Amino acid sequence: MGKSAKARVGRPAAKDAGEVDARILSAATDMFLVRGYDGTTCEAVAAAAGASKATLYARYSGKPDLFAAVIRANVEAALVPSTDMPDDLPLHERLTRAGRAVISHAMAPVPLELMRLFIAEAPRQRDLIREADALGRRAGIRRIAEAIAGPDRDDPAAIARAEPAASRFIDLAFVPHQMRALLGDEAADLEIALQDRIAVAIDALEAAGLIPKRPVGASN
């Protein structure tokens, strides 16, 4: 009996510590999204996570530190994964598919609510929000650049050449679509508009000479 009790004394196993970390970040994410920064307390997060205040404060020095951890964890989780697509697809089809994947991924409920939280907290958490925004933007540009590079997507030089066009595509298609979603446009209306936004962006990239023009008679 005594031996069993001694085995439980000391630092928690890595697996248990990881589970506690995940519960705290999950509870904090829910609370920040629902209550906002001002309406969230570390004590309430600890209670919702089933952890003691001491456990939370052993990991985070206070609410700003916890908020930063929530933002970084959720931005990383929300980054759009690489998409496999046949290399023999025409460039404009690859770009259309990748653009739809990147934009649709960002329109999911949690990423969209995180963006609303970013906007609300930008004036007092400027550096953190800029960091999170840059991380998300870089990931989106990378996915579009990979689509442009096609079979050369593993070549850093090919990605570097594609990045100016990819960055412009994000500005032309992703940013206005995200803004309409943040303003509350209905999902059905956004879906209808998405293909048009992507087509307009591709036309603009062609006109600027950032991507080759489609053969005469080809469509988006």
TrEMBL record:
User: What name does the UniProt record give this protein?
Assistant: TetR/AcrR family transcriptional regulator
Q: Which domain of life is it from?
A: Bacteria
> Which InterPro entries does this UniProt record tie to the protein?
Homeodomain-like_sf, HTH-type_TetR-like_transc_reg, HTH_TetR, TetR_C_Proteobacteria
The protein's GO terms of the molecular function aspect are: DNA-binding transcription factor activity; transcription cis-regulatory region binding
Q: Which organism is it from?
A: Rubellimicrobium roseum
Which regions of the protein are recorded as binding DNA?
41-60
Task: Please list the coiled coil stretches.
Answer: none
| UniProt entry keywords in alphabetical sequence | DNA-binding
A Pfam family for this UniProt protein? TetR_C_7
Q: Where is the HTH tetR-type domain?
A: 18-78
Q: Which SUPFAM superfamilies match?
A: Homeodomain-like
Instruction: Indicate whether DNA-binding appears among the record's keywords.
Output: yes
